[in-house]
Amino acid sequence: MEKFPEFELENQNGEKIGNKDLEGKTVIYFYPKDNTPGCTAQACDLRDNLDYLNELDVKVYGVSGDSRKKHQNFIEKNNLNFDLLVDEDFKLSEALNVYRMKKVFGKESKGIVRTTFIVDEDSNILKRWDNVKAKSHIDELKTYLKEEA
């Protein structure tokens, strides 16, 4: 089984989160940028379904290259109820091959490709979704988790 790389990133409050914090199942989702329409829709879907996920003992972390300050603003603005992790140097994103060349509005540039992982407490990757669609992904996630519960 593929392993999630060793990591330790700061959350929006400067607390270090890493493999030691993985319990049960953890959703770790990578998204391009705070306060953009798709990323906001995805984060709000997770926020609105967090009680359901918590009932299944699932934790959620979002990861982007944005700063702690931007994460704090994004959380406050959208009443998010889970941690956002800072990957400003894109080391974790690169290790998972989610930071790569992509086309946005016809322009090619390097950035985070929307990707979601479900990881267990031993850092095993149970499921990976690439090129996630922000608006419908919560349904895929819930279906998978319900079947695996």
TrEMBL record:
One example of a Gene Ontology biological process annotation: cell redox homeostasis
Entry's Gene Ontology cellular component terms: cytoplasm
GO molecular function, one term: thioredoxin peroxidase activity
Domain spans labelled Thioredoxin: 1-149
Active-site residues (renumbered): C39 (cysteine sulfenic acid (-soh) intermediate)
EC number, as in UniProt: 1.11.1.24
Keyword field contains Nucleus: no
Pfam families: AhpC-TSA
Gene3D superfamilies assigned to the protein according to its UniProt record, in alphabetical order: Glutaredoxin
Assigned keywords, A-Z: Antioxidant, Disulfide bond, Oxidoreductase, Peroxidase, Redox-active center
Reaction catalysis annotation: a hydroperoxide + [thioredoxin]-dithiol = an alcohol + [thioredoxin]-disulfide + H2O
Domain of life: Bacteria
Subunit structure as annotated in this protein's UniProt entry: Monomer.
Known function: Thiol-specific peroxidase that catalyzes the reduction of hydrogen peroxide and organic hydroperoxides to water and alcohols, respectively. Plays a role in cell protection against oxidative stress by detoxifying peroxides and as sensor of hydrogen peroxide-mediated signaling events.
Family: Belongs to the peroxiredoxin family. BCP/PrxQ subfamily.
Protein name per its UniProtKB record: thioredoxin-dependent peroxiredoxin
Organism: Salinicoccus cyprini
